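Have a think about this chain, tokens included, and walk me through the fold.
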Amino acid sequence: MNDVSPGQASARRPAVRPRDAASLILLRGKGDNLEVLAGRRPRHARFMPGVYVFPGGAIDPPDRIAWSVEAATETLGPELARSARAALRETWEEAAVLIGRTVGSPSPAPAGLPIERAYHERGLVAAMDLLTYVGRAITPSHSSRRFNTRFFLGDGDNVFGEPAASEELEDLRWHPVGCPLLESFRDVTRFMLARAIALRSGTASGEAPLFYWAKNARRIGVCREAP
């Protein structure tokens, strides 16, 4: 006979270890014309279904290895560089756009990874110095799917290609900041967007934040990963 109630069993269940992830906040325009690139998670998605989010996803093992088409990696450092690669790769896979700058004479050698080939074929380099570290957020311990996500900021002037929806993100396009569709943003998404806007306008203060939950309440700490 089992004397443990479902609630007690749930309470005793060990917390899921968060998976490292990365996300990219792309902004363009200014003032009343400020827009952010965002899309809606499919209704059938296991994580945040039907919610508007920035492009991004989990860090894969290949993201830990420097690309043949990247530059200025030292501006971020090794830890953040792998997160930046994941953010750039996921943005290309989910939104069909690349972030970088043109190169005068691209190398004739074929790149290995699909993301490397995409940059190479378009005569671009993934310039890490075009990204600004925004902060980090950790999903609550009671969640069944958890992520330890680093957020980066990029400017629309450095975006190549037209955004296109994918299986991962529906209604993917440049949305005016503050439009009704983005009301489904989770609190952490709103927080990181506000921080990104402040960084872009030069009004941000303090070190990169760490957004997390403790004792069923959100906390804002200091993330000491910034370069």
Notes: The two ends are 56 Å apart (CA to CA). The first helix runs from residue 6 to 12. Residues 8 and 98 are 48 Å apart (CA to CA). The helical segments are 6-12, 78-95, 114-121, 187-201.
